[in-house]
Amino acid sequence: MYNVSIPAISKEELLARYKQIKPIVEMDGKKYFLREFTEEELITKSYIATLQEDKRDLVDMSLYEPCVQMDFECIHSYGYPGCFKPSIAEVLAQIEEMDVKYVDAFEIIEYPTLNSSAKNKIVFDQGYHISKVRLYASRNNENVQFIG
After folding, report:
1. Per-domain residue ranges of the chain
2. What is the distance between the alpha carbons of residues 5 and 77, in angstroms, rounded to a whole number?
3. Which parts of the chain register pLDDT below 70?
4. I want to staple 9 with a disulfide (CB 3.0 to 4.6 A). Which of 13, 56, 84, 107 is the partner?
């Protein structure tokens, strides 16, 4: 049996990542940043549960480059199987340490489905959903060299 878990990162590392890497959400075909979340909310709140109240600035996507080659499957704990409730902390903890300096935003681009793949069943049976996350680099990020 495989043991599934979300990597642990320190509170300091979580806050440092959150200062740099912000969630993006899509509503009505437009992408938005969200309000600032408290330390507790980063860990305990589903950041997609109250999008209408939490959305803030429209994202100027000409300033961000999607890092498609760094898309990754992300696991999220659930309270019960029918409720997808991703926290910002869950996503930030699963961004590879070597990628952190290149990344300025993230977006869930594929939401969980209840398909019958063996991998999904293993993860699901241990209390997790799987999403796909896309990372974005700001065109102002000095660690990234853009072509074009």
Report:
1. 11-138
2. 9
3. 1, 114-118, 146-148
4. 13
